[in-house]
Amino acid sequence: MTERPVDEYLEAEVQRLLTERAEVAEQGITVIRRQHTLLLCGEVESVQRRDEILRLVAEQFPGLSVQSDIGVTRTHPPTEAEDLL
Amino acid sequence: MIRVAAVGDVHLDADVVGRFRPALERVPDHADVLLLAGDLTRHGTVSEAWCVAKEFGDLAVPVIAVLGNHDYHCNEVPAVVQVLESAGIAVLEGTGVVVETTGGKLGVAGVKGFGGGFAGRCATEFGEPEMKAFVHTTRESADRLAAALDALDSPVRVALSHYAPVPDTLVGEPPEIYPFLGSYLLGQAIDSVPTTLAIHGHAHAGTERGTTPGGVRVRNVAHPVIKHAYSVYHLHGEST
Fold first, then answer.
1. What is the mean pLDDT of each run of 10 residues along chain A (85 residues)?
2. End-to-end CA distance of chain B
3. How far is CA B158 from CA B115, B140, B194, in A?
4. Is B19 within 8 Å of A45 when comparing Cβ atoms?
């Protein structure tokens, strides 16, 4: 279990990890420090990508309390157009 | 009326193939052309480009794209472009195309663009060579966009980029990272030529709607911003 505090260095490490590790490569995940927890927010293109983010963070920071609010972006057609008059 | 569908930042890999296709099959019902605003792949590999080709190829409307920063990651840009173009997807970089639609001619000019920030709070070509190279890259990209827009033989012009030309459509992103999300130089290029609409992506937490200082509508079509497979914009008449 990590004894590391949830501080801004940890926040920066997690954010860089999610972008720079090829298996994730996400720049669109927001990392928010909340009490003793890191909250991960944003949207990804598949359930597998969300699962991989959580797996990687758990692997790299064992014992870290993480909350996830990562959604999978919907892909339905638009219901209306915007008229640019 | 010309109907333009657009989406960016779809970040395709094998795990996403098929998710967009049902909505894409219906694009011809909604639009005359589909624009892709960069970050078509996750890492810019040839195998991911084939995923894009499979998902976005063989549609009944022209598909016109620019690349994004993700598409450059693995340094395979020429091969990625070749795969996309083999699937009939036009890839613009300092270039333009004119499409004939039932509503008239539509010209699209595109660049990936780059960062640097916005007026009064932007990076400058000064100091270390790395800094000069950063801003120089953006300036050259903006110059190519202006030239490509100007060369379009069409009364209706659309500017397509990955990076943002205005800060309006970045609202929602941390202000500290605006310089990595776009540049006013792209906006200035768009305003230098009569342009009807500017489309970009890149800013996943941004806002869909904005305008350039010259009054051109700007739309951020990053997939997490528009939250559906693509947005559709109806354009009318000649550029003002």
1. 80 95 92 92 96 96 94 96 94
2. 15
3. 20, 19, 9
4. yes
Each residue's pLDDT tens digit, B43-71: 999 999 999 999 999 999 999 999 999 99
Q: Quick one: fold of A8-72?
A: Histidine-containing Protein; Chain: A; (3.30.1340)
Indicate the burial class of B89 (C-beta count within 10 angstroms; 0-12, 13-18, 19 or more).
Answer: buried
CATH of the domain at B157: 3.60.21.10
Q: What does the pLDDT look like over B20-40, one tens digit per residue?
A: 999 999 999 999 999 999 999
* CB atoms B229 and A43 under 8 Å: no
State the residue range of the domain holding B63.
2-235
Residue of B nearest to A74 (CA): B228
- Token pair, residue B237, equals 């008449």
Chain B CB within 8 Å of residue A23 CB: no
